[in-house]
Design goal:
This protein has 162 residues and is of the alpha+beta class. It has helices spanning 38-55, 63-80, 93-99, 107-110, 152-158, and strands at residues 4-7, 14-17, 29-32, 114-116, 124-126.
Length: 162
């Protein structure tokens, strides 16, 4: 029997708590996943397109991968206030989000390990461009497509039955 429907600390999810059967057992907590706000998905879609153009990267040839990652970023934007990488496991998502290392674009994607400069050559910035989620892929990646755009409809279609 389900004991109560209680709101959790995240505004877009809720928990179902069953009553305890004995004093030594804790209640069973089941979290129901709620879709991210459509506005958040659109914000992350536009961000992803803009960053792909800016960084010279491309979306995965399988737009389903791109769609799932964008929705995951949107969900984290809704629940954590920042687009934390959805492809990693975190013991404490809020703590990770506050550290910003895995906030999209993550440090491995945007880091500049080498600056090459000379008096004859304009400063050239070399970025690592390592996206664990496969959202931003370099042209030489076997999974890179040719698109730097994805429509809202493509995202909805690719994630409709998830």
């Amino acid at each position: 029997m389900i004991g109560a429907l209680q709101s959790t600390t995240t505004p877009r999810s809720f928990a179902i708590v069953s009553p305890t059967t004995s004093p030594s057992r804790r209640p069973l907590l089941v979290r129901a996943k709620v879709e991210p706000a459509e506005k958040s998905v659109e914000i992350m879609r536009k961000f992803s397109e803009q960053y792909a153009r800016k960084s010279g990267t491309y979306f995965c040839v399988d737009k389903g991968v791109t769609s799932v990652v964008i929705k995951g970023l949107a969900e984290h934007k809704d629940t954590l206030g920042t687009p934390l990488c959805p492809c990693r496991h975190y013991d404490d998502k809020a703590a990770e989000a506050s550290q910003s290392f895995w906030n999209c674009p993550c440090v491995p994607m945007r880091e500049r390990p080498v600056d090459v400069s000379s008096s004859l050559v304009k400063l050239e910035r070399i970025y690592r461009k390592e996206c664990h989620c496969m959202l931003f892929l370099t042209p030489d990646n076997d999974f890179a497509g040719t698109d730097q755009t994805i429509s809202s409809e493509e995202i909805k279609e690719a994630t409709a039955y998830m």
